[in-house]
């Protein structure tokens, strides 16, 4: 795999050897590119067998002291074949490097920008230098780094979406978060334990928590933009993201970054500064043994504050009953006494308040009178403003730390190597839900007289370890490994209430949570035959994977509903506590009802797979590859998938490439087993207690919803690559089509008729008013075009300008009808099985067009990084077609300046979203603002609503 990527000032440490022979001297020289005779800056020049070395300057020149002659120097640079040169005496030499080094043979550290797409591969691969972006770019978490640098990748911070506020869903090529496979050092990464069931893109799917991986631990990221299930197994329908960890040694890299939003809409649209963020990261490695072994450590810590973009609540807040409460409270009266059937006290305080009762003397008479709105008067009397009842619409608060290690120890001179990598992360989050207003039945005003803003506190833990050994057996390369990972997500709900418990309710709840664990054992065997045709690579192997998903119950008050006398409701005949107006008080902790023992479970499964892979250079200009993979799951059966790809050289600088593959995605254990009750707010902002039932539940059988089965796919890609050496320009264009059958979705909300049917009873037992499920409801097609242009230029004698222009143009659509059961068809519920808002989430809620232009100007003392990203239009995800507002395309600009104040110290200042651009506001005529809650859509995301983010970074690089 060839890469024309040059990089800055980095010393690659090789083996130490204490050879001392003859006279000392100095070698000077220049390193150039073979095809263009252009100098290569940042090339590594090392005396073979020692740790002595240097890097070339911006003119490709170097000088190196040699302890003795003869000596052999090793010259390497990203994207070029490594060359060894024997030197017998002090002299000046010129070394030319030829393009063609494979990615997994090179350490990609220190370059300014990635040379994005490989020119000679049969499928498109983006290579992203994360270590450079951590130094120069505004973003510090992995999801946001990729969102701004890889056009085919989409991820945004969500708001008012429960657990999804804390784990950002991400996608590739506009497909689902669970249709992209994530690897670390080529080994399968476990998924998050969170399944997205609220109103966001990726609803009903399970992704991988990329933010559990410290960006400072990563050398590069390889993004394969093509289906690869035949090579890697389930989930690789959209493509594969491979994260390659750092291997550097004897070098300390320390970054301290701090920033905040300096925006016109900060602090609830009053302007100023909010959303302060600080990140501290360190990376250091040590040599192990005398054969090139290493261990590399990374630690990072970050804290980010929340922010809100809600201006003020425009709806009703107080009714006349709340006025009665205010007078009673000022009199020191126990407000809970107002709720009984003796209304003498209510009439007394109503009269004090001057409320005209027209002779009303019973609760039934008082209810229609006291339900009248009295917001304006109560705000004035209580000294409050409408903004005191705002939600936190924006970003959750997070605080977390991560530790990663990467290890390799060669055991002999024949290539036998013991390796391992491991990670540990923990972070806590705090987000808020909808404000519980004092005029709502879910607000127990004797405890919160002005209502309350409930908070979701998360504790997310992630741990992983991989251990393997690789070497040669009779010229066959053998790699045997085991990878384990576990992610857990626990909820504690604060500043909230179980309204049905009335005075007895706590305000802080352990709501339980869930976890997901995965263990994967791999055996991979391969051999390259250089004497067959123009080269033949044969590979085969096997995989055994174990998975386990658990739901842990919370404490009883977090999920139970209670009667007025404090009894837990277990029978349909029991009546919950009611408010003054006769409305039932909802049970469970407000904003997020906890998991009950009925939800609690532990489910596991296993899969076994075998694959065979051939890649042949039929001639020097014709590459043909194929892969076949069989996989069998313990819970749904087996699948056989194939991939065929080819690359044809049409000339010295132009290639054509094409691929066809079939794929599959097994329904996750989360989708098969998740069950709970949660508060979902409908299009009008009204709360609904929605129960999620598994597909083997009685509720699913009543509605004729079948068992989940695997998604299957077919995809085709076709593209070309071209280099223009004289212009220092590369171009890649790739088109693709992906068809997915039986796509798993999260259904709409099915409600019982309210006539005591079995479905009504099941909903009552779940403390829910509606039911949702996971189902293979539809087929989809995705098609698109990816374009990447890379250009290098020298400015004057000491500066280099690198520019990357890349874009993705995609479209996903539902094809065919909704695959509903006859029961649903007869009941007229097909539109609930796959509702209109789900279609929008799938097709239009994230940009289908994204264009990225990055420019990097580098000299020996400073660098300038400029990036413009064009985010295409998106559509509001609502089931009311008339309310589907289209939000227009926007251009977001990043700019940073870095200055090297000392050999080891760089200061960088810059901005993300320099011009404080926001998405289009929600227009009033579309009725999506929810009485002022959402001036910007929370369901359709382009680049977030934080506004301008300014940052400063201090970087130390000690060698």
List the defining traits of the structure above.
single chain; 959 residues; mainly beta; 22-stranded antiparallel β-barrel; 5-stranded mixed beta sheet; globular; disordered N terminus
Notes on the protein architecture:
This protein is mainly beta and 959 residues long. The chain is built from 15 helices and 43 strands. The strands form 8 sheets. The protein has a 22-stranded antiparallel β-barrel. The protein has a 5-stranded mixed sheet with strand order 8-13-14-11-12, with no helix packed on it. The longest helix has 11 residues, at 320-330.
CA radius of gyration: 31 Å
Number of helices: 15
Average pLDDT metric: 86
How many strand segments?
43
Q: How much helical structure, as a percent, in the residues?
A: 10-25%
Instruction: Please identify the oligomeric state.
Output: single chain
Which overall shape is indicated by the principal axes computed on the Cα atoms? Answer: globular
Topology, please?
Elements: E1 25-33, E2 44-47, E3 53-55, E4 61-66, E5 71-76, E6 83-87, E7 92-97, E8 125-128, H1 130-136, H2 142-149, E9 153-155, E10 170-172, E11 180-184, E12 187-188, E13 218-224, H3 229-232, E14 239-245, E15 252-263, H4 266-269, E16 272-288, E17 293-304, E18 307-308, H5 320-330, H6 344-352, H7 363-370, H8 375-382, E19 394-395, E20 397-410, E21 417-432, E22 455-473, E23 476-494, E24 509-529, E25 536-552, H9 556-559, E26 601-619, E27 622-633, E28 637-649, E29 654-665, H10 669-673, E30 676-681, E31 687-692, H11 698-702, E32 711-724, E33 729-746, H12 758-765, E34 770-772, E35 774-795, E36 799-815, H13 822-826, H14 830-833, H15 836-843, E37 849-858, E38 862-871, E39 874-875, E40 886-887, E41 890-902, E42 905-912, E43 949-958
Parallel strand pairs: 1-7, 11-14, 31-34
Antiparallel strand pairs: 1-4, 2-3, 2-5, 5-6, 8-13, 9-10, 11-12, 13-14, 15-16, 15-43, 16-17, 17-20, 18-19, 20-21, 21-22, 22-23, 23-24, 24-25, 25-26, 26-27, 27-28, 28-29, 29-32, 30-31, 32-33, 33-35, 35-36, 36-37, 37-38, 38-41, 39-40, 41-42, 42-43
